[in-house]
Design a protein that fits this description.
This protein has helices at about 1-5, 10-30, 35-55, 55-60, 65-70, 80-105, 105-130, 140-165, 175-195, 205-235, 235-245. With about 250 residues, the protein is mainly alpha-helical. It has one domain: Rhopdopsin 7-helix transmembrane proteins. The N and C termini lie far apart (about 50 Å).
């Protein structure tokens, strides 16, 4: 079983992401008039980034894509590190910041995450500008990676605090936004230590490499599965407010 999972790691990982994207598209009519639609846009964005970012691996395993390595060999685009740094590490953090900015109601909290996002974008831009060559080789900017995680965690914690300090706590378990925040929170609790110890990553340590793959896959499947279930089960926020009013 373990060998099967490792051999099909990328298929399973990308499969759950694509499934979440498909569910998001199918759920759009239900949420098109609510703020959940912004998260649906985010999931579609994730699918695009992931599928496009895997072009080196796809081209290795598919004969009909062999023109890609032939075209990118010995060029700056032979590796996909810059793609993930810009569109995943930076882009996703800003997208999530925008999403929580939309769902938060406390003006002070909205201001905090707004300026946090602007500061993160500004510093990330400076680091990219002064070290752009490094992203075409094999360098990973830990500041951008950890900075993005901190920004997203800030959004999550402010959202949880707003729930605790308002009447939203009465029906928090019915809110789609809550499940998004909870899924992100658990994911970052596990993935943050992995990011910190990334510099000690050694491909020759097979036991650690396999353990890391299992952990990443478990976290991704749990998070995206939570998104899928929430999209299917949860109702738009307007309907939820009507139900709460009726019950009270």
């Amino acid at each position: 079983m373990g060998k099967f999972i490792l051999d099909n790691f990328y298929v399973i990982n990308e499969g759950i992401i694509v499934l979440a994207g498909i569910t998001a598209v199918l759920s759009y009519p239900k949420f098109k008039n609510s703020r959940v639609k912004y998260f649906i846009y985010f999931l579609i964005y994730i699918v695009f980034i992931e599928l496009m970012g895997y072009y080196p691996r796809y081209s290795e395993n598919n004969s009909w894509l062999q023109w890609i390595p032939a075209l990118t060999k010995d060029t700056r685009f032979e590796r996909n590190l810059l793609w993930y740094t810009v569109f995943w590490n930076i882009g996703s953090a800003l997208f999530v910041t925008f999403y929580f900015f939309k769902i938060l109601e406390n003006k002070r909290f909205k201001t905090i995450i707004k300026f946090g996002g602007i500061l993160f974008l500004f510093i990330s831009f400076l680091r990219l500008m002064f070290n752009v060559e490094g992203y075409f080789t094999n360098q990973r900017d830990m500041f951008i990676l950890i900075g993005g995680m901190i920004q997203i965690m800030l959004c999550i914690m402010l959202y949880f605090y707003e729930i605790l300090m308002s009447d939203k706590i009465i029906a928090f378990y019915k809110s789609f936004h809550f499940y998004v925040a909870a899924a992100f929170f658990i994911w970052f609790l596990v993935m943050t230590p992995i990011a910190f110890y990334q510099k000690y990553y050694n491909v020759e340590d097979e036991a650690f490499v396999n353990f890391r793959k299992f952990l990443i896959l478990f976290c991704n499947v749990l998070m995206y599965l939570t998104f899928i279930i929430a999209l299917i089960k949860c109702k738009p926020q307007s309907q939820l407010k009507e139900n709460i009013t009726t019950n009270t």
